[in-house]
Every structure is written in structure tokens, then in C-alpha cells.
TrEMBL record:
It comes from the Bacteria. Residues 8-304 form the D-isomer specific 2-hydroxyacid dehydrogenase catalytic domain. The keyword NAD applies. GO terms for molecular function: NAD binding; oxidoreductase activity, acting on the CH-OH group of donors, NAD or NADP as acceptor. CDD domains: PGDH_4 (cd12173). This is 3-phosphoglycerate dehydrogenase. Pfam families: 2-Hacid_dh, 2-Hacid_dh_C. It comes from Kosmotoga pacifica. The keyword NAD applies.
Amino acid sequence: MFRLHANDPLSSDAMELLQNSGLFKITAEHLDKDQLIKKIDDIEFLVVRSATKVTADVLNAGKNLKVVGRAGTGLDNIDVKTARELGIKVYNTPGANAISVAELTLGLLLSLVRHIPRGTQGLKDGKWEKKALKGHEIFGKKIGIIGFGAIGQEVAKRAKAFGMEVIIYDPFVKETELPVKLVNDLGELLEVADVVTLHLPLTESTKHIIGENEFAKMKDGVIIINAARGGIVDEQALYDALVSGKVLGAALDVFEVEPPMDELRRKLLGLDNVIATPHIGASTYEGQKRVGIEMAKKLIEVAREMVSA
């Protein structure tokens, strides 16, 4: 039996699949980095979500570590380069939480343009701000989607259902059957989009892909949505664009610093034209069940291949 440790929680259905496979001796509890390094020598399969950072220190300490499974889409919390050098296989579950993130993206957009958070809080505070909360329709607006993987595609479908014109920039996508417009240049998207939403991983090439120069190319009064990864947007440049009025509003589920308690992020969150959620894009019961089951099936498949090799 392989020794498997789930350092971040998986759904009960996923854990039951792993247990019933008969392939694993399973432990499940969140260990901080120092605790994990002390115990990782006894772990062969490590399962994480976004909370655990699988750094080079952790990987190098895992003398018996064979597999790291990331129950989710991104791999920015795993040192994939070091894992590859050490012969440790890394797997994730791209697409399993796409619907959850796409629904939050549209929810954030509607909440922003119709002032839903402020309206709710105002009523709770005994205010009736009907005249002050005139909003905008999204019908007929151009939404620019940067990144057209599983999540970007689900966002496009929902945006079309709202009557939006969808423009896509993704250098890895050359064609699609969806009724959207593909552009080859990011600048072309930025110049025409009323809403810019990001759905791409955080890598060296995508870090601060939206910064001061990109904001300068956008239409006045543009809306920014980031439910992908913190660090894709230069948040100082975003703050400046929000204060200047270049950006009408921003809705953020992710931040370059999480939790966003430093001075810049607190200033950003203090703006009236910013709404935010605490990195909950994938946090639905349905999404986590799909992610967990897909991860469990993948790990069982890998373990069986190792047994039969």
C-alpha cells in the first residue's frame, strides 16, 4: 500500500474512493510547512489544494515522495521544476471547477455594475440609497476574456447568454466552435472591451500581464474582473487606474498577497468602486466534489500503473 497524505481536505466522496481502492494507507490533516517537512519522509502520495505551498524544501525532504496531486486548476503553489528534477510526478484537475469559477465571475460582474453589495449593506445600515445606486446593463457590452481554457470557455457561454459580445485573447487557441471573436493581439482586445476578465494561470510570462501600459490602452470606464490568480494584475497600477477613473470598477477574488492585509491591498479594498471575495472561485460543494473525485480517480490510476510496472 502507498502512504497517501491529504494535507488539504478533499470531499468525502473522494476520500471514500481512495479508501475503497485498497491502494493507500491514508492520513488527512493540514500540516504547516515545518510539520510537513518533518513528516514527508513517510509520504509517497501528497494531495494538496491551494492552501499548501509545496516548495523546493518540502520536495527535497520527501525522499520517498512519488506523486503530488493538486486538487484544482493552477500549479503556482507547487515548485513543478524541482519536482520534475527529482522525478516526482505532479497532477492537477484542470476544468473540474470551471463552472464554479465561471458562475462567480458573472456574479462578481453583476454585483459590481448593479451595486448589490453596497445596496445590501445600506439596507442593513438603515439606508435607502435608491437614487445613488443607478447601475449599468451588461447586455450589448463587449467582454474581453484573457485565457480561453475550460474556465474562459464557460465564462464565454454565460456572457453570450446575457447578450454580451465576447472577444477572446489566448495565444494557444487558434479556433473555437463557440460564437466568439478570437484576436491575435492582446492590445486589440484591450482597446475595445467594456469588461476585461482574466482566466489564465500565474506563470513568469503572465505575471503582471495587465499593468500600467495595458490600462492605458483600455477604454475609459472599463471594468476589471480577476477570479484567476493574484499577480496576473499589477495591483498598484490597478489602484491608480481606479482612482483616476480610467477603470470604472474592479471585482477581485484573488490578490497578489493573500490574505490581502498589506497597505496596498487595504487601500485597494477601501475604494468604493472595488468589490471582492476571499479566493472562493472554486469553493462550491458541487465543484469541490468534482475536483476531489477527479483527483482520486487520477491517483488511483497512477498507483495501479506503479503496482503493475
